[in-house]
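Long-time lurker, first post. I've been practising inverse folding by hand and with some scripts of my own, and I keep getting stuck on stretches where the structure tokens seem ambiguous. Below is the full token string for one chain I'm working on. Before anyone asks, I'm not after the true native sequence, just a reasonable design that respects the backbone. If someone could post their per-position residues I'd love to compare against what I wrote down in my notebook.
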């Protein structure tokens, strides 16, 4: 049995979510079916450089996209994931594995988290096949080059990307090809 608090199995689904994709939402949907409560945790200070969307923007998009799930909440965190999980009294961390290439990084993270807190289990799930190639990084790259990403992100994420693009054009005072 995974560690439960008062019979409730709570899991954390951590990530950068810059921006959230349909792959993330697919995993949230799967996770919401196997855990009593799922806390989507948006990392505040990412080592991946300056995010396109602020922490609050990312959390807002996720809140909107997950509003229909009764057992999913969205929070932000900084510092160690194990500390946040302990604070939330979570027994598990949910992570997605899309392909073998994800495995090494995910394995290292899971083992490090286990070393830091042996009570916290990492549970891996696979997204739907149609999202196995989708990543936030690719989404941003394709969008910048005017590629069609409408089937890969929720409509509100596309809207926010368009708004960012318009804002950057306005602030630059003209066309900014390739800018987001
Ligand atoms: O979606 P991402 O960017 O792959 O998510 C990475 C994340 C947020 C899960 C990871 O960077 C993380 O847990 N960061 C918090 C810092 C931490 O706990 N580091 C030690 C575990 S390796």
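-- Answer (accepted) --
I ran through it position by position. Result:
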């Amino acid at each position: 049995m995974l560690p439960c608090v008062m019979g409730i199995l709570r899991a954390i689904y951590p990530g950068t979510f810059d921006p959230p994709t349909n792959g993330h939402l697919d995993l949230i949907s799967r996770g919401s079916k196997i855990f009593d409560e799922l806390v989507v945790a948006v990392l505040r200070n990412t080592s991946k450089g300056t995010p396109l969307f602020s922490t609050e923007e990312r959390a807002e998009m996720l809140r909107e996209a997950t509003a229909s799930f009764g057992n999913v909440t969205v929070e932000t965190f900084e510092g160690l994931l194990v500390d946040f999980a302990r604070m939330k009294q979570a027994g598990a961390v949910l992570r997605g594995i899309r392909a073998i290439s994800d495995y090494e990084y995910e394995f290292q993270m899971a083992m490090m988290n286990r070393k830091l807190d042996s009570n916290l289990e990492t549970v891996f799930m696979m997204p739907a096949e149609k999202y196995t190639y989708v990543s936030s990084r690719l989404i941003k790259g394709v969008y910048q080059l005017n590629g069609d990403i409408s089937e890969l992100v929720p409509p509100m994420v596309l809207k926010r990307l368009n708004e960012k693009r318009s804002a950057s054009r306005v602030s630059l005072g003209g066309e900014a090809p390739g800018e987001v």
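A couple of notes from the structure itself: The radius of gyration is 17 Å. The chain has one domain: 10-168. Happy to go over any region you disagree with.
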